[in-house]
Every structure is written in C-alpha cells, then in structure tokens.
C-alpha cells in the first residue's frame, strides 16, 4: 500500500512538473515568437491575453494527449463557460431557425416604429466562438442601438467543413427576413454583421442575397476586421503583422484550411502562395494585389512577393478557395455593385487589415457607399475585449461605439 501511494505521489509530482514546464514553454513561445508593435496601446494587457490563450491551448493539448478530451473541445469549453443571466433592458431567448440555434436580443423599451434587425455572426476562425463568447457584444449592440439582434450559432469546423457555416448563416438570415413581423422588425431594415470569420460569413450572405427578388434588400452589411480572400497571404498586412497577437499569419491560414477541408495539410503551400495556379492568380490580380493597397500602409516594411505556381494535386485540394461564398473578395462586379451600404472596420496591427482595404476599394469602385473606420492602435480581436473588465482596450470601445 505504501509503495502504491509513493508511486501515485511521484506520478502526480511528475505530471504537475511537466504541466508547469509546458505552460512555461508556452509563455516562452509567446515572448519569442510574437511581437507587440509600439503603436498598440496597453501592450502589457495584450501580452497577458495572449499568454492566457496560449496556456489554455497547451492545457487542451495535454488533455488530448492523455485521452480526456480533444484540445479544440477544451478551448471551446473554456471560452464559453460564462453565463451572464438576465438583462434588465433586454428580452433574451434561445430559438432555432431552420435547425440553426440562434439567440435573440430584443430591447424592452417600447418603440413607436418597427425596429432594425441585426443578424450577427460571431468570429473565431470558423473553429471557435459561440453564442456565449459574443454574448456581451450582442447585448451591447442591442441595448445601445435599440435593435433586435439575432446571434447565430452556426456549425463549426473541423467537424463541419465549408459550406456548413455559410449555409447556417444564410438559412437563419432568410428565415428571419421572412418572419420579421414576429419580432417587430422592419423588413427593409435588416443588417448582417460579423467579426473576423463572422465578417467573412456576413459578406458571403450579403452577396448571396443581393440578387434575390423574393426577399427585401438588406439595409447594410457591417464587416469587422473580416477575412475575405485566400489567394495571397503575403500582402503587406500579412507581412507586417505576421507575429502580432491575437491572430498570427500562420494561424489565419490554418483556420481557413480547417474550415475548407477539416485539416491543414496544405498549410505551407498556402502561406508561400504555391496553392493557386499563376494564371488564376493573375486573373484575380485586378482585385487581390498589393497595388490596390494605399502606399501609407506599406511603410512599415513590405517586400513584393514572387508569384509561385502550384501542382495540379495541391490545387485540386484547395480549389474551392476561389469560390466567393468562401472568399467574398473574388465575387464578380455584377454581384458587388448590388451590395447594400457597407461599414468596414480595420485595425492597423491585424493580418486581415488588407482584406478589408481591398474590399473597401472593390465596393467603392462598384458604386457602393462605404463607411470605413480604421483603428490606428487596434489589433485583431480588439472589439470583443471592449467589456472584459480589467483587460479591456480603449480602441475596442471606440470601434464598437462607431459600429453602434
């Protein structure tokens, strides 16, 4: 008995020591492989948030290796475990729209007219995020803008590959647009909105609905640091911000491939640009090119990237990256010019910055009215930290106030 007890103590000691070493290794990784640019306000806060995220991922990997749960499941659990309870200013209800879970936020204050409706698609790289992770954000938008907000709990990758998330968001939006009277919403005043991957989904849904004659026209689209293309991961913002938290260049491509194929087996080819044939890239160069990025966004260091060709085998596995429902920046002008008034928020220290800038140009070139708001001191994910108690950022609050 004493021997067994001793062995158990030794096992626990080794496990704890190993766990501490792994977490310390994660922290060392954060400091050695990430960069906090001097233009970011409150850099210590950003560093702390990044350490928390990396440590959570490391613990998840440990639990996966010992067979308790998958790393993705653990991170999702940790992100979504908080519940806020009732809100004195909002009616909040969980429903299903066409087999898609949604959470509806309706202001309690009476309105003499029909309200606007906001379909909200959360970010998280199509892999993470949920109704819970964006609960505070949706409550804030509903309260401050006195709008009915519908948050969509779309299916996540890698379990559910493209186009699952897009289809869920599209079906939920169409259902809402066909039933706006049940929620006191003006059918001509429905907006699609999303952050990061959710911004991608909002853009794709907006494009799909642009040509529909059986539905009211969307009032607007709100794209918060959206990812909109996968042809070029060497645009200026991808080079300049490759190691800036909370989204590294490599992780942006990784998440996209998780959504596309459920794995990241072609990650290196995507990062170096050898995943799409040169003739196809040249065809889209009128829309996806550093030449379309204003010069002021290249001064922090940008080196033109040599065009690389790809093998037929690689292209076969990733060719759907050229579909506008996955990469909305590649939609034809005939679709783009029908899009509603648009709001695009970008952050200077974000790998996805140039996706937003390129889409802004495409919309304007096609006569679409665009309101662009750029956070000079912002980084990817800053909006969702607006109300994180002691880890909030003033730039996130500015951006959210502008959205409202």
UniProtKB/TrEMBL annotation:
Residue ranges of every copy of the Alpha/beta hydrolase fold-3 domain listed in the record: 118-264, 313-383
Domain of life: Eukaryota
Active site: 196, 350, 380
Entries under Gene3D superfamilies matching the protein: alpha/beta hydrolase
Cell membrane as UniProt keyword: no
Pfam families, per the entry: Abhydrolase_3 (PF07859)
Listed SUPFAM superfamilies: alpha/beta-Hydrolases
Residues forming coiled coils: none
Residue ranges of the TM segments: 7-31
InterPro entries hit by this protein: AB_hydrolase_3, AB_hydrolase_fold, Arylacetamide_deacetylase, GDXG_lipolytic_enzyme, Lipase_GDXG_HIS_AS
Molecular function per GO: carboxylic ester hydrolase activity
GO cellular component: membrane
Keyword tRNA processing included in the entry's annotation: no
Keyword terms, alphabetized: Hydrolase, Membrane, Transmembrane, Transmembrane helix
Family in the record: Belongs to the 'GDXG' lipolytic enzyme family.
PANTHER family assigned: AB HYDROLASE SUPERFAMILY PROTEIN C4A8.06C, ALPHA_BETA HYDROLASE FOLD-3 DOMAIN-CONTAINING PROTEIN
This protein's name: ADCL4 protein
């Amino acid at each position: 008995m004493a021997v067994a007890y001793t062995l158990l103590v030794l096992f626990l000691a080794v496990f704890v020591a190993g766990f501490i070493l792994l977490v310390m290794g994660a922290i060392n990784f954060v400091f050695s492989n990430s960069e906090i640019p001097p233009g970011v306000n409150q850099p210590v806060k950003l560093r702390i948030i990044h350490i928390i995220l990396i440590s959570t991922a490391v613990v998840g990997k440990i639990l996966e290796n010992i067979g308790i749960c998958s790393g993705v499941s653990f991170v999702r659990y940790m992100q979504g475990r908080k519940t806020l309870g009732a809100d004195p200013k909002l009616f909040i209800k969980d429903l299903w729209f066409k087999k898609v879970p949604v959470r509806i936020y309706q202001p309690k204050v009476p309105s003499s007219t029909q309200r606007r409706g906001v379909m909200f698609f959360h970010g998280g790289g199509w892999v993470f995020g949920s109704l819970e992770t964006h609960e505070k954000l949706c409550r804030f938008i509903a309260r401050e803008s006195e709008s009915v907000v519908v948050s969509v709990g779309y299916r996540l990758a890698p379990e559910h590959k493209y186009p699952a998330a897009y289809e869920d968001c599209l079906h939920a939006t169409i259902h809402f647009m066909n039933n706006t009277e049940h929620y006191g919403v003006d059918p001509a005043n429905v907006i699609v909105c999303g952050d990061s991957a959710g911004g991608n989904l909002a853009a794709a849904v907006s494009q799909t609905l642009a040509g529909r004659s059986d539905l009211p026209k969307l009032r607007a689209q709100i794209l918060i640091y959206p990812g909109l293309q996968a042809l070029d991961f060497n645009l200026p913002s991808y080079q300049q911000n490759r190691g800036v938290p909370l989204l590294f260049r490599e992780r942006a491509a990784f998440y996209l491939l998780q959504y596309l194929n459920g794995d990241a087996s072609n990650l290196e080819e995507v990062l170096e640009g050898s995943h799409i044939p040169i003739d196809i890239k040249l065809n889209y160069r009128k829309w996806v090119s550093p030449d379309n990025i204003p010069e002021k966004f290249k001064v922090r260091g940008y080196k033109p990237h040599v065009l690389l060709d790809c093998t037929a085998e690689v292209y076969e596995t990733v060719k759907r990256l050229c579909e506008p429902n996955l990469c909305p920046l590649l939609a034809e002008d005939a679709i783009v010019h029908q899009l509603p008034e648009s709001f695009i928020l970008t952050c200077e220290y974000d790998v996805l910055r140039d996706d937003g800038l390129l889409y802004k140009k495409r919309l304007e070139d096609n006569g679409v009215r665009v309101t662009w708001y750029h956070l000079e001191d912002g980084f990817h994910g800053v909006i969702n930290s607006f109300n994180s108690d002691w880890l909030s950022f003033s730039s996130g609050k500015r951006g959210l106030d502008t959205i409202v």
